[in-house]
RNA sequence: GGGGGCGUAGCUCAAUGGUUAGAGCUGGCGGCUCAUAACCGCUAGGUUGGGGGUUCGAGUCCCUCCGCCCCUACCA
């Protein structure tokens, strides 16, 4: 048994997440966590809401709420949506927690003691009308390069030129529109990443098995030379900087957010958390896997490691990164701010969690951005889930109920059709297992689908409805194999469709969390006690009708 | 501007430089009748974004052009 630490990128607090966010980190992490638990490993699956930063303050203001109350409420909203999707976090914490405050301040102190922190004076754009300093992107104005009038302070959206807020002509606040903006002096703490470059490079060098994309991003930052990075902000909401002269300032959200991975573990287990995170406290044998979107890779391969390595304390660092591309809404962007696409709460209103889980994971954006369309979703639900899997379970259990009195029949022995099934499963199950281990989700679930289809092929070949008329033992052996197959498929499918797997196991009164099938198909397909009663389940997946699809397309504004 | 990635069948995706570029869905044909008009089998479908090059051999390597995505350190 191994110990597996799994973190999902933290969903930001400013509103419920859409399907793209879900499949970008939380869902694949959940599938992996469930798979690893089923294999008998000890898993800590950690997630949390990321609650600090300017966008959170603005979202709270827009909602007319105090920031703390807003975050508390949105945390519960996101937590409920995650539960609805069956995301099996061992903890879903908050980056605003006392644990994170304590740890973030601890890291800052250690970094300072080690000479990696320096206070620097600088001037930033301040808006009296808003009563706040403005991050670069919240300053807008006319682009000096192309004349575009709504260029942002970090980059012009029209010509793409990278800008500094002071470059803008006629700058104004993007928040209030006020043109009364000025430069003010302020002091901030800088993390001297430049001094940590050798350590970080050596650490990256020590991980040659990271994906090509991950490594190239890390080396790009290293090769350009790590720049010192401001880790504090002039905001009210955040983790206070415990230093004289920094009253009213907080740590930068990107400094404290990854530390929440650790703090959330402490929220989960205030006594045992160090065994996951401190290599001197037992974490040296932990395997740590991070899931994130492609935009997040640099922060996980360079920035956060700077914090950990610079502390000179024995913190656990990531072993394996899984980064995903974007899910797109019909080829365009899902957008939280513009409400474009489908959001987690809406998704659960219209279809069960497992249908989304299956579609999203079987089509996960692993090698490139992938288009989500309602038509493809509907097709996957109807074909893969309703026809291939759901109908298989239905036809087996219904036939067994009507012909064999609702018990697992006795008699007969495996014949030609069964032997062929054994051979196929003994090839496919190890292949599927290996793809899951490698986190090659699309390939894994193509294999799982093929395993479902193998069940239908088997039934077609065995044709117990025919043999029942002439050779009841033959039919009994086939039906018994079919029923065992339902159980086996439940176990194999549980990481991706846990709710359905539970229903399939309940057919045989099995309530325990499924464990991963070990051994040969011949034995796996004869585990149910002969003569044991079972209960045929209701239809597992209802099909989506054309009218329903049209209604959804209308509701969500699907491009046509 | 710089760096990285991607572009393959109508759609979503595979393919250590090596036979005739493969799956699933969709379409067409046939079979079965246990089952949610489901299932099983067969089949159709390609100038691998354009052009050039290296090689005995290129979807794969090189150059170039086109298009899309990510990063570029104060959005997170």
What key attributes describe this structure?
560 residues; alpha/beta; Rossmann fold; Methionyl-trna Synthetase, domain 2; 16 strands; 14% strand; elongated
Per CATH, the architecture of the largest domain is 3-Layer(aba) Sandwich
Which CATH first-tier class of the largest domain would you pick? Alpha Beta
Question: Which blocks of ≥5 consecutive residues have pLDDT under 50?
Answer: none
How far is the first residue's CA from the last residue's CA? 51 Å
DSSP strand (E) fraction?
5-15%
Structural class: alpha/beta
Number of helices: 19
Radius of gyration using CA atoms only: 27 Å
Main β-sheet, spatial strand arrangement: 3-2-1-13-14
**Helix fraction bin:** 40-55%
Shape: elongated
Mean pLDDT: 94
Main sheet attributes: strand count, strand direction, barrel closure: 5 strands, parallel
Protein name: Methionine--tRNA ligase
EC number: 6.1.1.10
Motif ('KMSKS' region): 333-337
Subunit structure: Monomer.
What can you see in these coordinates?
The chain is α/β, with parallel strands linked by helices. It folds into three domains: about 5-115 and about 195-225 and about 255-370, HUPs (Rossmann fold), CATH 3.40.50; about 115-190, Methionyl-trna Synthetase, domain 2, CATH 2.170.220.10; about 375-525, Isoleucyl-tRNA Synthetase, Domain 1. It has helices at about 20-40, 55-60, 65-85, 100-115, 195-205, 210-225, 255-270, 275, 295-310, 345-350, 355-360, 375-405, 415-435, 440-460, 465-470, 470-495, 500-505, 520-525, 545-555, and strands at about 5-10, 40-50, 90-95, 115-125, 130-135, 140, 150, 170-175, 180-190, 230, 230-235, 250, 285-295, 320-325, 325-330, 370. It has a five-stranded parallel β-sheet. Helix 13 packs antiparallel against helix 14 (about 440-460). The two termini are about 50 Å apart. The chain binds one RNA strand of 76 nucleotides through helix 2, helix 6, strand 10, helix 7 and helix 9. Belongs to the class-I aminoacyl-tRNA synthetase family. MetG type 1 subfamily. Its cofactor is Zn(2+). It is an enzyme of class 6 (ligase). It catalyses: tRNA(Met) + L-methionine + ATP = L-methionyl-tRNA(Met) + AMP + diphosphate.
